[in-house]
Structure formats: structure tokens, C-alpha cells
Amino acid sequence: MPRTEITKQIWAYIRRTKLQDSVQKRVINADEKMRALFGKAKADMFEMTKLVNKYIIKYIKIPPPKPAKCGRERKPPGDSTGFFFGGR
Known about the structure:
Elements: H1 3-16, E1 27-29, H2 32-38, E2 42-44, H3 45-53
Antiparallel strand pairs: 1-2
């Protein structure tokens, strides 16, 4: 599940259970489940993202396969073998 979707689901839970502070809208008053996730009783909405990120596994980028060589290979620049058949 992408991080954005996880954040949306957490915010849906926060709104459904009315955990958002009524005065300071940025503060989340953690219930028992959120306290287990955050590790504390209150968290700022920006801090919440940081605290949740440690539970998300990041994907490892695997480089795409190299294209197969076709035809003859090019000689590197500066390789003058065979230049004018003299082999300079």
C-alpha cells in the first residue's frame, strides 16, 4: 500500500474517532491504538507522518536490465588500431 494511502487511512481513523484536538487542529490526541503507533499521548500532524514512516518498508529500486548488444562493438575513442590500415 502506498504511503499516501496509509496516511489517508490514518486520517480517516482520526476523524472517525474524533482524535483531532478541538482547539489546536494540528494536534492529534492519541487513543490506545494510536499511542501504540506514536509511542506518546499527543503528536503534531507533521510529526505523525515521521512517526508512521518508520513502520513503512521502502521499496528497493532494481535497475532495469541492460539492452542486449547487437551487431559489432564500437571501439572506444582514441583506439587507433587499424587507422588507414597502418596500425598506428
